[in-house]
Structures are given as C-alpha cells and as structure tokens.
Amino acid sequence: MNINKTVNATELTVALEGRLDTATAPALEAELNQSLAGITKLVLDFSALEYLSSAGLRVLLSAQKAMNKQGEMIVKNVNETISEIFEVTGFCDVLTIE
Amino acid sequence: MIKISHLRKEYPNATPLKDVNVEINRGDVISIIGPSGTGKSTLIRCINKLETPTSGEIWVDGNCITSKKCDINKVRQKMGMVFQSFNLFNHMNVIENIMAAPMDLLGKSKQQAYDDGMQLLRTVGLADKAFNYPDELSGGQKQRIAIARTLAMNPEIILFDEPTSALDPTMVGEVQAVIKELANKGLTMMIVTHEMRFAKEIANRVFYMDEGGIYEDGTPEQIFENPQKEKTARFIKRIKVFENLITSKDFDFIGFNTSLEEFGRRCGISQKAIYRMQSVFEELCVQIILPELSKDFALNVTAEYSQEDDSIAVQIKYSGKAFNPMDSDNILSLKLAQNAAQSIEYAPCNEEGFTNMLVVKIK
Ligand SMILES: Nc1ncnc2c1ncn2[C@@H]1O[C@H](COP(=O)(O)OP(=O)(O)O)[C@@H](O)[C@H]1O
Ligand SMILES: [Mg+2]
Q1: What H or E segment, with its residue span, contains residue B81?
Q2: CA distance B268 to chain A (A)
Q3: Which CATH superfamily is domain B238-362 in?
C-alpha cells in the first residue's frame, strides 16, 4: 500500500493506493497518529484503494473517533467493492462518505 | 502448415527441446501450457527463427526454414509474434508504430498503410488512440496496439508468448478478447499462456510441455478434464487446487495472499472473486482462528476451483480445541467473511493433526 499525504493549512488529505489489510493497516495507523495534531479536516481518498479488511476498518474507526474531537473526517472516491464493505459492516452510518 | 521434425535445442546448461515432432494445421489455435523452464518460449522462438535449432527441421508452407538457403525475412512476414513486453517504439505514436513495417517491408504507400492501420485500430477498439504515444497508454492498450501492429503485416500465423503476463489483472480480459476475435477469424495461432481458462476456451488443441518436448497433445477437453499422462494430470490438478499449510503466527501473510491471487488468475476467476477468497482467508483464519490457537499448531488452507459451476470451495482445517469461528465475538470479521461467502460450514475433523474443519463456498 502507498500512502500519499497532502497538507493544506489544517486540512490533511491521505490518498491510499493498494490494499489496506492486516499487513498494511499498522502503517496507516502510525502515519495518522503522527499527522493528526492540529488538523481540523481529514480527507481519505480511496480512489486507488483496491482491498479493505477488518484490520483497515479498525484504523478508520479510530481515526473517525480522533477527528470527532477536533474537526471532521471525510472518505471520498469509494469504489463498488469497498462501498459494499462499508454497507455490510454498518460503517456507512459511522463514516461520512462522499 | 508447420511441420516440425526431430527438433532439438541445446543451451550450455540446459536442453529444453530434445526431440520435438509435431504437425500444425492451417487454422489450428494451439494453447501451449506447462511448468516454467520446459521450453515453451524456446519452441516458439525456434519456429520464428529467433533461435537457431541445434538440429532438426521446421517446415513452414513447404519451405524448410531451418535450411541455410531459406529466406528468413520472407518466412517471418508470414509469421507475427507478440511478446509479454509490448516492444512498441516509444518515439512514434500509435499509428506510426503500425504503419512502419507495412511501408518498409510490404512497400505500402503511406496513405494505404494509414488507412489499413486505422482499420486495424478499430478492430482492437483503439482508433481514438491513433495519435497518442505508447507512454500515454495502459498496459492492456499497449498490448492491443502490439497485436494490431502484428496484424498489419497480414501474417498467416501468429505466435504469442505469454501476451497477458505483464498486465495488471484488470487488463487481461480486454487483451484476451482481442486474441479470441482473431481465433474466430481463422488465423493459425500458437499461444503460450498461464491463464488456464483462456487456454481452454480459445484453443482447438493444447500442448502440454514437459520432459524436453510436447509431452501431451490433445483437445482442451482431454488435457484439462481427462489428461492421459501422469505429469499432465499432476500439473492440471495443481492448477485447480491451492494448498498452503501455516504453522507459525509469523507466516508470510503477503506471500500467502499473492499465491492465492496467482491461483485465482490461473483459473481465470474474476478479480472480485479473488478479493473474496482473500477476505475469507484474512477474516476467518488470520483475525478469528489464529488468535485462538496456542503455540504449536497447524492450519491448512486449500482452495479448489470447479469449472462446471465456476465456483471456488475453500477448506480450512486447524488443530486445537473445538472452536467454531461462527461463535466468535469478532463480529466485524465475521460480517466481512459472511459477505464474501455463499456458505460457511463448520464440522469437527478427525484427520491426523486437525480437529476442526470449515468449508466455505465463495460467492
Ligand atoms: N538464451 C538462453 N541461453 C541459455 N539458456 C536458455 C536460454 N533461453 C532459455 N534457456 C534455458 O532453456 C530452458 C527453457 O527455457 P524457456 O523456453 O524460456 O522455458 P519456458 O518458456 O517454458 O518457461 C530453461 O532452462 C532456460 O534457462
Ligand atoms: Mg517462457
């Protein structure tokens, strides 16, 4: 998985490319832990995300909790496969998906 | 149309072709399969004279192409070749790539080469890319251009060496569709491929290569459903079945997923179904079962593809106390596994080394 970050003042965009799974979720978690200070808007761009597992969902959930305290989090460009995963797990009710 | 007798090719450290004898008829579409290193590429390259055979003869349309007197350029004009890497000229745009050889070698006028080239681009669905450069195209589009360029020489025979191996999974289908169209038009073709569904669907004849030659030559039904010889049968079985034993929590997760993906691609199942298999493995085995297992354990995963109903059955066997993953409190992983599966059945197992068994049908 590739993690591409773009910071614009207090807005952080994180574009993920590849697989967010048991092997790669810890890298995203570490990256977010380091970068969320002072951020009021976190945008997760999933246009190149191909695969998502529960390990990745758990990282998304803790990011959502962190951002609830300091601003907002938006998930965008979700493909059909990933969208199905948000549906069946109920994550579509927890996340803001554009 | 092609007659090969006593073909032998030696390299300093290997003799991939020992004694190949075969006849290929006009209109034959032949899939060439087999383990790597068994001379599939060498055979194709000898036919095209990219390699010089050590001994033996190859006749194409009554011309002995292995004799010194043979005008190889004439023979090559009849014979197109499509490689794994596309070999387009990057400094020329698409239509220039296609026009070059017909103008240089067939003496076509620029206008004629252009008109014919555009027609070919339409047949591979890429007329709107005529003025793009190769760098601006996806791998699948480049390979379709490479096929159009080969067709521009009006070949009677086309040799393909793993035409889809270098492509992203999402692009394999578009290239295979173009090759299938050519087969329907009656071109004589030989195709080396690892994609077994494609190999089966496109060909009227399949060569299984092993032991220094064409080990078994038969119809797709014979080779894939009812192979007559031992090594063919073993190879076909290995293609349809995936098996992996895990005995350490530090097993190679990425390698495991990669081999599941390769298994899926060999069988020609969709990318979506591959993700579903991986999801079942990750959620059930990695997230739910592994944490329940104590230090010395065995977890065996097999997946089997059935061509009849185009389905995959995954069997997961593991040691330890009786544990049905459906009772796990890891609801998130269960939901994902259930989303990927058509059915999940648990049963105790009394095979040696295993106490639990799950049978999962992938959606
Ligand atoms: N140019 C070469 N020089 C030396 N050995 C070669 C050469 N080409 C192929 N070989 C050897 O010949 C054998 C068959 O190769 P190849 O025809 O490429 O197999 P396949 O296409 O079936 O995987 C291999 O052992 C390979 O290492
Ligand atoms: Mg080869």
Answers
A1: strand B79-82
A2: 19
A3: Histidine kinase-like ATPase, C-terminal domain (3.30.565.10)
